[in-house]
Amino acid sequence: MADRDVVTWSSMIKGYVQSGDAHEALRVYREMVQVGVQPNSVTLVSVLQACALAVDVVEGRNIHHISVNMGCELELGVATAVVDMYMKCSCHEEAMRLFHRMPKKDVVAWAAVISGLTQNGLPDESLQVFKCMLLNGHAPDAVTMVKVLTACSESSVAHQTICLHGYLVRSGFDNKVFVAAALLDLYSKCGNLDSAIRVFENTTEKDVVLWSSMIAGFGAHGLGQEAVALYQRMIASSIKPNSVTFVSVLSACSHSGLVQEGRQIFDTMTRVYGVMPNPEHQNAMVDLFGRAGELQEAIRVIHEMDGRAAAHTWCALLAACREQNNTKVSEAVAKNLLKLDPDHVGYYNLLTNIYAFDEKWESVKETRDMVGNRGLHKVPGYSAVEVNNVVHRFTAGESIIYRMQ
After folding, report:
1. Which domain of life is it from (predicted)?
2. Residue 379 CB: number of other CB atoms within 10 A?
3. Rounded Cα gap, residues 263 and 136, in angstroms
4. pLDDT tens, 41-50?
5. What pLDDT is attached to residue 201?
């Protein structure tokens, strides 16, 4: 094109964002600025979406500053994009400061905050924002309700789940299949598998997401046989499984020790359904073989990944070595694992436990010294119990005693 105006450049930037190529979108934006074309608010929204996709908070802050100078910072579209960018870049405090200053908020802005707080590990705050949204007279859409259900699944409050289910029925959202899948997942994570099954069976139109969620629910509760049976029922219903389905059913096989079933499903995944194995599938197979004591099979799967094995895949093999008390293989696996993620304290703790079981106290000391020298700290575990609709969390090592009526 001989002449390119701001609309043309903005269209290219938006196209790259929609294609998932954030870095190319940012490159085009920088080229646009270099040739002297000034962005408008539409351009800024697309560039902010690219920054969120690339998790580039430095560039995101620059664009935010430009929006302030242009006087469009508090425009609904721009402000929402800035909030979403900060949330996805783990800067939730900056996101909330802008959100509270926004003179007008639509359902998209509220949804961005609800989703963002959950992504930043703040599900309780996310649910509080949803309550504020309702109190301010804003009606959520189905997409927002999925984000709310996701937030609730992170806190796993049983009473709140029942309340939300009632709200979904009253609001007519319960007939949306993707909302039903999120609700099913929520019930499953709250330990209420019977309610999850009822949601599944009462949903008339079941898509691959709903089937996959129910398979995952059975697997999470250690019901591998039921997960495999549901997978076979799904196939019989002419629903084609996707990549997520295979992750769910292979993980269920792993947790229940169904080695033969896992082998068969993994074989048909590519041969019959054309789904190429990704690291999650291979991690599930390593975990499956490792739990069954078939270390050589687990190692074979990793070798077939040609150096693409992720840290959590090596961790699954290391955990299997611990179960089999195989210190020799453990050391080789740990070496690869710590190269990939040298700052994950859990891997060092796992290796320490392996050395301790084998009474290699000098190796235990060396590993603990490595943790100290790197300044790593173990994240404390906690449990939670719901009493009278209030969740009480108990951190490992706490000496506080609660009196409950």
Report:
1. Eukaryota
2. 8
3. 53
4. 999 999 999 9
5. 94
pTM for this structure?
0.79
- What's the chain's length in residues? 405
Residues of the chain under the 50 pLDDT cut: 404-405
Helix (H) or strand (E) holding 391: strand 390-395
C-alpha 50: how far from its chain's center? 20
Helical residues (DSSP H) of 156-223, grouped into ranges: 158-171, 177-189, 193-202, 208-220
SS3 329: helix
Judged by DSSP in three states, 52 sits in: helix
The predicted-structure confidence for 291-307, as pLDDT tens digits, reads as follows 888 888 888 888 887 76
Q: How far apart are CA 225 and CA 6, in angstroms?
A: 58
Residue with tokens 């080695």: 259
Encode 91-125: b = buried (16+ Cβ within 10 Å), e = exposed. Answer: bbebbbebbeebeebeebbbbbbbbbbbbbebbeb
C-alpha closest to that of 155 among 389, 312, 399, 397: 389
Tell me: the pLDDT tens digits for 350-392? 778 878 877 888 888 888 888 787 777 776 776 777 776 666 7
Q: Which amino acid is at 305?
A: M
End-to-end CA distance of the chain: 75
φ/ψ of residue 178, rounded to 5: -75, -25
